[in-house]
Write a structure and sequence with these properties.
globular
Length: about 525
């Protein structure tokens, strides 16, 4: 038995006074009891928490854990502001450190628009200035676009499957020649087929990433890692090895990313386990599928043309019949479905497919759903899929959205408060390493709808700001609902899994604009203290 004594509580939608102190009894991996006042017991099992605030541990329902762990093995271009600087970084860092991935030179965080000495997005022609006869792959900051060199193109052109469902995401010049730039699902195809990791690399990357999650109070994740592995069993077995060796201090749901119905059928034939099955910490997650791209690239599918690019309304990856078959097949075989759908056209497509099955039976989910409309909100309210939101995204996108969708539809972009009021289930998540890892930062963005500098003043579309309670619940209990485990984890109650965090300040005692200053002081996972701030 352990007792966390002299704590204050923050439980969303529970009317606890910010001044009242409690003690929490932990027996093994479970909360035995939450009691008002100080304990009468004494001994080494009693931990004086000095009136720290205890909340449920964070559950990030949408991230890429393996990719986050692999970043240390890649060149980092996020702060690079010129092509000359980028070339120097590649030359120096590639020679100084082992950056190869199966003989590919790999970099991440590329932002072409901030390169001051070049007036166009980089192409394979530009990368000819590099002095390497090895394939090079450089990923944009948001993960939806990449540029490769001619050595890589030689390899990619030998893969006929790249043209299936991905042809519209391969950039060509006026003569129909590949420029070396790829978008969205074509990027995922390249990662899936040419950047696969062995078990040792997976093990090391995830092991090294987990402490960063614990520092941020994250005790559970739902992660899409298959792009970098290719084989679901190899991925799952490596996570099981980490669990067995004591390096996995978080609960993990592993998604299976598919390109088409054949991928899904192959998975169902070769794997007996279904969503929710697995060990104590490592479980099968959802079938993950991309239905469109991203607004920055004008590839997320809208129902009307882009305001700033009226010659396109984005791209649908699948026909409605193809998606219906995928959703129905997954549902009938015990698999939850998670669909990347940013534009209103793909949200509509998602709903069309979901209306053919019993959504609440599997708790299927739509990822992002950034562009909505009144009719879609009404259908979401009726069908009730879970919406996975990423408030951290708006810190970099709020001033661009109106250019993409126009003023009339802007007010229906990321309408989180409306979603909450309509009782459409939703979670908060990070999409890290694309978005900021810290749940506190995500909560700050959801509550304020500003960046961390307070811009725009008063918040972007302020009527859509979330409450503090809804934001914390979206990062805990709501995510547990996706696991069908809300009666076992996600809140501070007797019988719940003892995943909890100690915070430096009480969220209800602060101005919303100050929320980002909250620090995670301790993290407890399954009754074990796994992080303590120095």
């Amino acid at each position: 038995m352990k007792i966390l004594n002299n704590v204050r509580l923050f439980r969303p939608f529970v009317n606890d006074s910010t001044e009242d102190v409690f003690h929490i009894e932990i027996d093994g991996e479970k909360i035995q009891g939450v009691h008002k006042g100080l304990t009468d017991e004494a001994g080494t099992h009693v931990v004086d928490c000095d009136r720290r605030v205890v909340a449920a541990g964070f559950n990030d329902s949408h991230m890429h854990l393996l990719r986050y762990g692999l970043m240390k093995m890649e060149l980092d271009f996020r702060s690079v502001t010129s092509f000359e600087e980028m070339k120097n970084l590649i030359t120096n860092r590639y020679n100084e450190a082992k950056m190869e991935e199966h003989d590919w030179v790999v970099g991440r965080g590329l932002i072409d628009s901030q390169l001051t000495d070049i007036d166009h997005p980089l192409t394979a022609d530009d990368l000819e200035e590099l002095e390497y006869n090895k394939p090079a792959f450089f990923l944009h900051e948001d993960g939806h676009e990449c540029v490769v060199n001619y050595e890589a193109l030689k390899i990619l052109k030998q893969e006929p499957k790249l043209l299936k469902n991905h042809e519209t995401f391969i950039e060509t010049d006026d003569n129909g020649n590949w420029t070396g730039r790829f978008k969205d699902t074509a990027v995922h195809f390249i990662k899936f087929n040419f950047r696969q990791k062995g078990e040792e690399e997976i093990y090391e990357a995830v092991r090294d990433a987990v402490p960063h999650l614990l520092e941020n109070g994250i005790t559970s994740v739902h992660t899409d890692d298959l792009n970098f592995v290719g084989n679901f069993e190899r991925l799952r077995n490596t996570y099981l090895d980490l669990e067995k060796d004591g390096h996995l201090k978080i609960d993990v749901h592993l998604h299976h990313y598919i390109f088409n119905i054949d991928d899904l059928r192959n998975f169902l034939r070769s794997n007996a386990k279904r969503t929710g099955d697995g060990s104590e910490r490592v479980k099968v997650g959802a079938i993950k599928i991309f239905l469109d791209g991203t607004q920055r690239l004008h590839t997320s599918a809208l129902r009307q043309a882009y305001h700033d690019k009226p010659d396109t309304a984005g791209e649908l990856v699948y026909s409605q019949d193809e998606l219906n078959e995928i959703v129905q097949t997954a549902h009938e075989n015990g698999m939850q479905v998670a669909m990347h759908a940013i534009g209103d056209r793909t949200v509509e497509q998602s709903l069309n497919a979901l209306e053919q099955v019993n959504v609440t039976e599997r708790r299927h989910r739509i990822i992002h759903a950034q562009v909505l409309a009144p009719d879609l909100l009404e259908r979401l309210q009726e069908v009730k899929p879970y919406i996975e939101t990423q408030p951290g995204f708006i810190m970099n996108e709020y001033d661009q959205t109106v250019n993409w969708v126009g003023e009339d539809q802007e007010k229906y972009c990321n309408p989180w408060n409306t979603v909450d009021n309509m009782e459409i289930p939703f979670t908060l998540s990070s999409d890290t390493p694309i978005g900021p890892l810290s749940p506190i930062t995500g909560i700050f963005a959801g509550v304020n709808r500003t960046d961390t500098d307070g811009n725009p003043n008063g918040g972007w579309i302020p009527d859509e700001r979330l409450s503090i309670d809804s934001s914390f619940q979206g990062y805990s209990q709501s995510a547990a609902e996706l696991e069908f485990r809300e009666h076992e984890k996600g809140s501070l109650e007797a019988g719940q899994q003892a995943d909890l965090i100690l915070l430096s300040e009480h969220p209800k005692e602060m101005q919303p604009s100050e929320l980002n200053s909250i620090e995670v002081v301790e993290t407890w996972s399954r009754g074990e203290r796994v992080f303590q701030k120095d």
